Records
---
Amino acid sequence: MTDTTDPTDPTDPSVREHDSFVRRHVGTDSDTQRHMLEVLGYETLDQMIQAAVPSTILLENDAGEAASAVPQGATEPAALSELRELADRNTVRRSLIGMGYHGTHTPAVIQRNVLENPAWYTAYTPYQPEISQGRLEALLTFQTMICDLTGMDVSNASTLDEATSAAEALMLARRTAKRNGNVFYVDTDALPATKAVLRGRTDGLGIELRERDFATDGAPEGQYFGALVQYPGSSGRVWDPSEVIAEVKSTKAVAIVAADLLALTMLSSPGSLGADVTVGSSQRFGIPMGFGGPHAGFVAVRKGLERQLPGRLVGVSVDADGNPAYRLSLQTREQHIRREKATSSITTAQVLLAVMAAMYAVYHGPEGLTRIGRGVADRTATLADHLVASGFELTTEAFFDTLEIRATGEALDIAAQAAEAGYLVHTVGDDLVHLSLDETVTDADLRAIAAVFDSFAPDPGHELADVESGTTWGPLVRRDAFLRHPVFSSFRSETAMMRYLRRLSDRDFALDRGMIPLGSCTMKLNAATEMAGVTWASFNAVHPLAPREDVAGYLEMITQLETWLADLTGYDTVSLQPNAGSQGEIAGLLAIRAYHASRGDSGREVCLVPSSAHGTNAASAVIAGLRVVAIDSDARGNIDLDDLKQKIKDHGDELAAIMITYPSTHGVYEQEVRTVCQLVHDAGGQVYVDGANLNALLQVARPGEFGGDVSHLNLHKTFCIPHGGGGPGVGPVAAKAHLAPYLPGHPGIQQEEHPVTGQGAQPHSGSPVSQAPYGSASILPISWTYIRLMGPEGLRHATASAVLAANYMAHRLSESYEILYTGENGLVAHECIVDLRPFTARTSVTVDDVAKRLIDYGFHAPTMSFPVAGTFMIEPTESEDLAEIDRFVDAMLMIAKEAEEIVSGAWAKDDNPLVNAPHTAASIATGEWTHPYSREVAVYPGSWTAPEDLTTHDSAQMRIQSKYWPPVRRIDQAYGDRNLVPTWPHETD
């Protein structure tokens, strides 16, 4: 008997009776959706999807559901119970492994008020600075913390981890070095993961990576453009690199130092030693190890290199009233503007973790950080003295927190006994034991560790001495003050700290306040149930290099998630290692290059990138060593097939790949996507499908089945990891089986083989793109839980609901605005582009004016001027209810009417509520009001003041009472770039 149920139809009983979480996740219920469909002229969701999605790629309603690798949706208690079972299969031992990851105490006030607070974790990257002042202030504090500790002049607002920060610094050195050459030197004592990531990044760029033991051999000779010194080294070695740095700089090469922030509370800063660039991680400032992440890396530079920094940079400017205000500075460096000429492809960074690290410094202050650093150093010295007295040999004379102990032929036995005692150490072969202490190590731990070594001591019987202060490093002892700004000394009590965090979050607009309709950003619900596992110790207290037997639960969850994602996308295998979409792009492109090289086609170096593609595409292609050739769009926003054919003909055997976004950033399902893929395949190229818009495809179409060879996915978009105000994210790379061997591997990975559809399992053997084997592993439970809760039917329903919301919104907005691109049947995908250029030409009201005026109406602006200048790209997602969608449309329509007041002459072009937006409370509290519009129009526009039933939750009165007040007026962007202020001043503010 044929199954006639429609899993995307809200009128179908199987959907109404589906697990309640789907109804919790999707904001519109069956009655609401029926109304929206009537407005659009369709009877069912499935009918609308059939009209929007090309029949050549559309999946049937029940396609693959019976045999799907994704289980049917579970209830919230059941999903959490399954997740807890996985977590409980992990064994949490006290990690002394080090290697860039350390135990740390997360202050409860920060965990509760930042990490677990949707006002922080549901915000987006602060492109609208007027409504992001709290986050921007916190990031300025992060930058100040980094600059003070490293002795550098300017720091970015976070990168993805230490290893990728080193790779970014390498590229910075190549751009800026005044010496020719293609050689880069890395310290033999650098972190192994850093060396592995650098090796992968340099392979395709014609850069020769050489290792050198700088402490023993000094600075290199010959032609090279940069060198990286690890300080302290991965062996724990502390030595003075100032002479090496000076010699490197004397050759006009760039001197980079990879530093440990906690060590810098004790040791001379890299800046004082002469470094041009300092990189590292802020993980040990209150961020759990999390089986590898997420953590906030950083790149800090001397003055003169700030325009070469990767990622975001926060600076101080002024608003329309001359008040200080924060903003993102020097944005013309970034990929969304510079594309293939950008300094980096990073978009999502690690803002939430940077905020936590900054608040850790605020919480402890300079005295507290010094006390923590001193405690770690003194305990390490005490243990070292005991080991030496017991007959062990240390390979380093000076150290901060890490000891390398020679235990010839017994290292593995020592490690095994340590594990039995509840401690993990790192071994190099069977002769060397590494152990790193941290702030969580107590005196009792020290005695237990010493007891393990006593069992193997050449000269046993010595008592462990009491810990005493006095560790010194001679001329390397830090003598200058740091964290001198009052922000680092003003919030010692928990009451003060709690209120400070609240004041900061109150200045921001996040999803807990209202819709954030940013196109291609998918600001959907991050459900509380999905977030639950993030703070479980059995997930977040695990070291990324813990032995395989200790991480059985993690590995099973990862295998399940890889299998589910492969099934949902139509690919054969998935790597979860990339910790951002940009890194997933790099991983996919490097896999394509390696595949071509394996077939003797190393000359294929051209990457075709449509003009409508995300800016990261072009930037990532350059980083992967490819040459970008742009493809035009036709009048309907589709890839111009004639231009594509011509470019394929022009480049022939040079063609490596095409990068397409599907649905395109023009907001449509392109009809000829299969044709595009086939043309490239016929020419010997590979097809990269950017997965940023996968929220319009889940269970509707599969990229791996309509022609894609590889894609990156954004778990922080489609799969509900929150954006965190600009990170963290996860950017898995999914590929067909022929590319599986070239996906990212890792020297420390616990499970080399990954599921490959139809082929069992096989290793991913490509170069790593992240510091940890599984990237930002501790947030993977969020996406695991989302998929487990939704099931295949729920995911399809979510996709259809997102497309419905976008089309309903586009239909209503078309009353006053032009929808720039639509598909074959006049429909858009999950987002639409509203063309404000005719509106601007007629009214003089710019896209910036509309964006800022939306703040007065209580909304975050859509994506501005991308991919087309002078437009909005709007994506409502499936999680918003009809009242919020209608309220946004009403605001846009009211703004159109307000613009008519300018056209009529009632309001002057230079004095009206649009050009003056946003309006703060202070701006209307003045004694004299000289504007041609009322104070009420300024701050309670349109329907805010309309008489309504005051008993409803969304009445005008209720909205007035809960109004978000922007803390500053419109910010002067140019002033902030001309007068760059990237840190707090050291004097009293």
---
Amino acid sequence: MDQCDPGRLARMLGAVIIILGWTVPGVAAPPAPAVGEGAGTHPSFSKDAIPFLSKHCYACHGDGKQKGDLSLDSDRDEQAVEKNRKVWENVLEMIRAGEMPPKNRPRPSTEEVEVALLAIDGVLNRLDCSQTRNVGRVTLRRLNRVEYNNTIRDLVGVDFKPAADFPNDDVGYGFDNIGDVLSLSPLLFEKYLTAAETILEQAIVTDTTPTPTKSQLGGIRETEGAGGEKRGFGRFLHSIGSFRAQGYFDEGDYKLRVSAFGQQVGDQPVRAILRINGEDIQEFDVTGDRSSPTKIEQQVRIKAGTKTFAVTFLNPYTDPKNSDSDKNRRLLFLSGIELDGPYNSPPPVFPETHRRIMAHQPGLPAREAAREIVTRFAARAFRRPVQPGEVDRLMKLYDKAELEGERFEDCVRLVLEGVLVWPDFLFRIELDPRDAQPGTSYPVSEYELASRLSYFLWSSMPDETLLTLAAEGRLRAELENELRRMLKDPKSAAFVENFAGQWLTIRKLAYVAPDAKEFPGFDEDLRSAMYRETELFFESIVREDRSILDFLDADYSFVNERLAKHYGMPGIEGKEFRRVKLPANRGGILTHASILTLTSNPTRTSPVKRGKWVLDQLLNTPPPPPPPDVPEFPEDKRLTGSLRKVMEMHREKPLCASCHQRMDPIGFAFENYDATGAWRDKDGTFLIDPSGALPDGRSFQGPAELKTILRGKKELFSRCLAEKMLTYAMGRGLEYYDKCAVDKILEALNQNGDRLSVLMAEVVKSEPFQMRTATGEER
């Protein structure tokens, strides 16, 4: 089959040529066989595929020959083909694309190709969608960092992103919520332990009653302007003024003691008044001297807060008959102010998190109250009813802490910390029913369905409404109503952030670094505006329930002044984003600066990255990785012609041609946008040529015409988005047996105006989302 391309046939995935309709002239993709179609009316593998393979393929991939590490002649029957499904799926797509046999080999007739495709496809897609079949299962799945933060927020009421210090989550199938790659390392478990302690320290108040203490106020000073002097044994007042001191006190009753003495001159004793925050507390005579000061004690009620204590001198006097300044003035000395308390403190005002978590029936013995708290918290944390035996195990932590003399609140907090590192909290666990036979499919429980729904739309735990519906067995019946309710909730912003952020790969924008010399106008404000535009655009498709085809060519978007200036759109001022009608040279996500920037190199555009992004994210037909011996593309400093010319020379190399002929034409359609997504007419001194021709001969001039071609094949984009969304919703990669579910989703989508709400509703109603195939291993 492949005499001259020393390649990669065994690694080749689906070819975009056929998926875009770029078929070999006269050869169409075979229709799916009708359910129940008789064997006698359908081409068979042995009678129809084997002769085709013998004539056109075995010369390179048979009789011991393994061009591209691919040998086909060992699979002689349908069982062998099903066993090596991945290989034969690649073979099928390459025959469809016209890449097998290669161009330098005799070409099979259209009829031969059609019959061979039907025969191979009949084996690979032998699914009776009307019958019960494998619906797959999700690997035990750990909460990723986003899900952990959001779940803690909704469970505990503490929103400070405790997972910020966790190791990064691995990515599978383009998403970071895939069960197969979410492992639990010893380091991460240590982080969980630390986080659990920190979270509950913030949520639960354990030091509930202030301990009475005796405190001496320090920092006593005279008020500004008061007459005062200092002697060896302290400061004194000789005119009207006050001694003042401040301190913070909890609410309660206090014993307040003031110690003072005076220098008596004249007929009256030294007189003073005690005030707290300007309020008169007690007026008193100071008759004592330094050796025996006057002491007063007053019971006072203080409200919590910072208080100012003042002792004010009321009756200064100077004896006019005495000229000795040390002895002719009435003086007030303050020895100190002391408080003892608080006593009779009111019940503490607990934060809302404490009140919600620690609520229990009044009058219960401590351990029973603790068990009530733990049972309720664990049920919410585990997203299902908790079993008595599970609570018994958790309460052992309470008993241990109580024996060590810990207070009630500390004992309960320790148990709840245990809940936050329990497997049923950290993982989304789904168990087969005890009577489920291996290989049979069954509906997941309503509680499991509630978790699937909430983590799909909110990246967080089910709320009380979902859990109540699950408890009453009514969630399935209310599924579409709940979908609409949940999308109206502010928590659905997580769907935009996490699904759109990863499907469109705009999360990577944070790590893109355009060259500062080449693009001095790029800054963090522009980066942020780029990201926000794409988020708001996706959100508008969700909120307004628009057609998913608007992702390709909508004539509107969202900009602020910074982004509008970058786009060359006058008349927009301010940091606020607003909806605008786009100029003719923009439309759809393909012309968003976020996408164009993250698919560029630091100093120049990359038609390869841009073309590959379309294949990966919009058509779900990723090209294979380049072979290890592929020639390197010239560095920027070695470019001596236009980028298009240099890449055409690169594409002439046999190792490069097969992949680049699919990626490059798409990427060149966007060459009028520089590496930061700004419009340009020239690349240096070279005029931009955004034209291209697809393998089927169709030509286009720029992105608008290419988007028209893509929209004309809407089923390709629709299937891609449906598969991406189902992958994200399920947390697993799709398998061949998911084809029936995807086909059903697409049928409903096509019949309802391609609206995004229909796509999302069909995803949550699909068999893979609603059901699970048993293995019989868990119990």
---
Amino acid sequence: MREFRPIELIKGIKPHENLDYSYSWESKICQFLADDSDSENINIRKVLPVNVFDDACFRETIAHLTTDIALEVEVKEPGTKDCVGNVKLVWLATVKKVCGYRVLMRWIGCDKEGDDKHDFWINFCTADLHRVGWGAENKGDAVSYVTPLVISDRRTDWNVFLAQSLTPMRTLARTFESMKRQVQKCKLQVGERVELLDNNVSTRVRPAIVLKTVGRRVCLQVKSVDYDVKKDPHKEDIAEERQFEGEFWCDQDSHYIFHIGWAARNGYKCYARDGYLKHCEQIARAIENDVEPEFAPNDVRPEIVFGFHKTIEPGTPHFEAGMKLEFLDPLDTNFNKLKVGTVVRLLKDGYLVVGADGDDMENESVPFHCTSGFIFPVGYAKKYGIKLIPPGGDENDEENFNWDVYLKQTRAISAPEALFQNVADKEKMMRDFPIGASFEASDLNESQLICPAHIVSIKGRLLEIGYDGWGAEYNQLFDYRAHDIFPLGWCEAHGYKLEMPKVSSRRVMVMASYGIKLKIDLKNVYIPDGASGVRTIASTKMENDSYLEIAQTETLFHNANPSFYQRISLQYRFDNFLRIRLDVVLVKDHLSEQIVGKLGEATFDVPVLLANKGRLTLPITSHAQVDIFLESTEFYGHAANFRFVGNHLHHPEVCPTIAPYFVFTLVLEKRSLLLHRSEVIQSRNPQWMNFVVPLYIMQFYQEGLLQLNVYNHFPNHDDLLIGSFSTTFIQIQRGPGYLNSYMLVNPEGKKKEEKMSVDLVHFEQTSCDSYFDLLNQGLNVHVGVAIDFTASNGDPTQPESLHFIHPHHPNSYTKIMLKTLPSIVGHARDNRITAIGFGAKIGHAHQMSNCFPLDSSQIDVFLRNPSEANFHVTGFDGLLNCYRRIRLEVMPFAPTEFADSIYHMSKFAKAATRLNMGLYFVLVVLTDGDVTNPKNTRDALIDACEAPISVVAVGIGNKDFSKIRALEAPNLKHSDGRPLTRQVLSFVQESDLSNDDSLALLPYRIQQWKLNVSSK
């Protein structure tokens, strides 16, 4: 298996953010390489080459890579130190394939058949890659040539061999090391000040500060030092923007950025404090009078911004006010359509203001430079098959719009075609940008995001790109020379997060899974004659009972107790049965790494590994054993600490006494997750306590809205909604301030009184025990199952009954148990299951019960004295056997009521807490009907919310389950007035099981209980 070497960032580059959930191209690259196996071209066809990206680092160097180029690569292998003292260890490798910034390399000396398995992928921008001779020329750390382990035993005359091998080869220019510094080069510096086009109000600019840079990309922020938000007439739009006290990302040459004094020089509106405006007026007068302006030390000057702009030569065609054209509106959300536009007015230095034709042209205008890739000649959209939004913005009139007629009606002329950027040769565009080729691209709607993307079509000089996993409606148009598209591997090279592709049909499956790794150690290994090393191959069991290989460790030689460095990566879901087989194979020698036999194997279930505190020891032979250790990332132990306060809260329908509390939820497509319910405070200006939420749950579901509902508490009847607001986690991360001060709205979306608001006053990242930490500390899961035997299921002796058991086919209840329970039961260390039946008459007297033992041998004991009955069965097989027997021994009845089953489980959960037993209870309720009395079930859930228990109800069939769904609400209230403090119930219908996360989110429920209940 080819190795993907992690990047060593070039000196001076620091990771921009937590990269645990940055997308890796690895699986895609493997697929691209396999599809490209018949090509002799060094560039992989399905990836855009670096040289087609304008101004990309190393574009010319990578374009000239060939298979006879050798490079020095730092040796970093298991069992080999990165350096000895201050001596760096390097060896030479040649280039085999190029995939964007990723390069496939092969060690010199790997010249045997099958040696391609030792090839490795490395990012060309890594600090570990050097030209041949760098070791000798390096004036810093000393360098020593050392052969990698895979070839170290193949010969002894490596110096002679190396000299002979290098004779016909070439290497990179001496400037290669200095060129690495260009990776992080940006013409704007942190702390400098620019004028920034308002992303909501395009008719004005505001002063902004450069917060950080990543390559050419800059992060800008409008700060209150130069901008008074309280006096801004557009302050109502602040919550919708990303610039004020936020992070707004764009390219250093973006149309959003202007030099200090640009607005004053061009008569463009600048909204800023008086001191800044006076400073800019002085700069503008000085430029007009050809006098050196007195710029502040951090002011960005005209020559910096104009470095890429061409000027208009006298006597040549030029734009005039009133000319018509087409343009791509950078402030619209439709980046796949052009608009009909007019040159509203001309500015200085080659700038012009373009407005969208319609009633509000002035207010929908944008400043462009005449060289901009966002403006196009009349007829461009029709020529290249792009949708054109006609005047007024009514897309339904597109088919009726005709430029010739419109020009006559408006008595206008079109801008000469010579004024616009030339359209590249069609054949060259098709050759450089093949359809389907992959790369990375900024999302123009959310400019901080960079996503995996691919070419959809070519429209003149515009590229229509699609974002991997997203539908065609999200496609966007980019000029082929735009600096918002990047070669594959750009994010990795810059330590910037690459967003995960959206896989809509499996999104829940991906989002609710946890990335874990397995470390493998062997003990007492005897290596027979004919072999010298061992390797471990990991495979996972498939639905057809076959095993699919998923990973291998490296090979370790001459070691009776090998400890493998390479981990086995897995995606773990609580509700997915995951069985792993480890095959320990014997390897002949370093030269061939040929597998010559099998030492033994061990099979285990991942839930069992978790139940055993993340460690298992299993035999592989009569003497040898394998130790398996589970490792999880620190990411799952990160948390966010919030604190909110209310201002001037009241409700027109309540008495002067007010007792507000809030419910904070994550609103998803199918449900709302309760993140926190605050305490009740009798005050119009409540200062609620801090609370903690695991960070990953909000990053799993970044598309979900965070909603905060404020209620007024009443002891004896339903609470009243005072108001609410919705936001996003991206917005919350901006921290306390004006951007996270929210006016409350009513259910119709209308704002309440302006003074009535909720403010975020504290937000910080902190740490907490992750789910995996809790398991390692001894937490154990206990599983319960409650099965519905009500009459609505039908007579179990009849084939149409849901409880009828066919001799060759499982019934509906058995299917659900087989699908949901094996993995959950596997998490239980003692393999005992609480098995409950409800909704039937039991025993000889036909006594009605909504909570009886599923084990029929315990029915008589239960009827004599319920407390003496044993509700436990052993293992999943024991559960199925008891179910098969009892379905014919009870009399189906009514109503559908499983409150007693919840009370039964929560009683033991509360007792386990008092005895500090470290147990968390999971009750799975299988039912074919809606609850008859929701009040009883609601009270049972609220009674249980302080206990270590979760309830998952699975609806079987297609009946109306609206009453059960209503019990998922985050603001339930007990009959005696007590509130729901933690969400206990999740409901999923049988048909949705494959695409639902109710069971998969149980680790989050466990962690939430530990954070918000157990810790009190």
